[in-house]
């Protein structure tokens, strides 16, 4: 009887975990994030070219940026979340860099693909 109880408890735990995960995914589809939970948070990471990034998501779609050793807060740096995709635009002296990737409201990492003119790179940001 004890063995049956242990197996039943384990099966229930697995079912609850699967159900909770499915609910979170359904919630994101039915009520997709607008990114408001990002406001005031900072994220950092190193891109595939070895550059160090820090992003602060500001109210109204602004971005505070640290890039390598520089700190920038330019009004032309912007972000938005739509339909499960985050887009970040950064104005460098050499042109606009666009970073795009999937986003859900409970993310602690964001996988981005960067593009500026003919240059591309990847960037993984982790929540600070």
Account of the protein in words:
The chain has 128 residues and is α+β, with helices and mostly antiparallel strands. The protein is built from one helix and nine strands; from the N terminus they run αβββββββββ. The relative contact order is 0.15. It has a nine-stranded antiparallel β-sheet with strand order 4-3-2-1-9-8-7-6-5, with no helix packed on it. The model has no long low-confidence stretch (mean pLDDT 86). The longest helix has 29 residues, at 2-30. Strand 8 (109-116) and strand 9 (119-127) form a beta hairpin. The protein has one helix at residues 2-30, and strands at 42-46, 52-57, 63-67, 70-72, 78-82, 85-92, 95-102, 109-116, 119-127. The chain folds into two domains: 1-31; 36-127, Beta Barrel (Lipocalin), CATH 2.40.128.20.
């Amino acid at each position: 009887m004890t063995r049956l109880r242990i197996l039943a408890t384990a099966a229930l735990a697995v079912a609850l975990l699967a159900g909770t995960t499915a609910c979170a995914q359904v919630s994101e589809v039915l009520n997709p994030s607008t990114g408001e939970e990002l406001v005031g948070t900072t994220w950092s990471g190193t891109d595939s070219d070895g550059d160090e990034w820090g992003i602060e998501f500001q109210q109204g779609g602004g971005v505070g940026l640290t890039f390598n050793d520089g700190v920038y807060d330019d009004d032309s740096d912007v972000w938005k979340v739509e339909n499960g995709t985050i887009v970040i635009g950064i104005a460098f002296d050499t042109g606009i860099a666009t970073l795009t990737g999937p986003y859900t409201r409970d993310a602690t990492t964001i996988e981005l693909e960067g593009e500026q003119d003919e240059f591309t790179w990847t960037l993984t940001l982790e929540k600070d």
